[in-house]
Amino acid sequence: MKGMDAIWVDALMRFKQSAYRPKRSIKLALTCGEETAGAFDGAQWLAQKRPELIAAEFALNEGGGGLTDGHGKLLEQTLQVGEKAAQDYRVETFNDGGHSSIPIRDNAIYELADALAKVRDHEFPARLSPTTRAYFAKAGAARGDELGRAMMALAKNPDDAAAQAAVSKDRINNSLLRTTCVATLLEGGHAENALPQHAVANVNCRILPGETVEGTRAALEAAIGDPHAKVTVVAPVSPLATPPPLDSRIVLPAEKLVAKYFPGVPLIPTISTGASDGIYLEAIGIPVYGVPGEWHDPDYNGAHGLNERISVRSLFVGRDFLTDLVKAYAESD
Question: Exposed/middle/buried for 293, CB within 10 Å: 0-12, 13-18, 19+?
Answer without folding.
Answer: buried
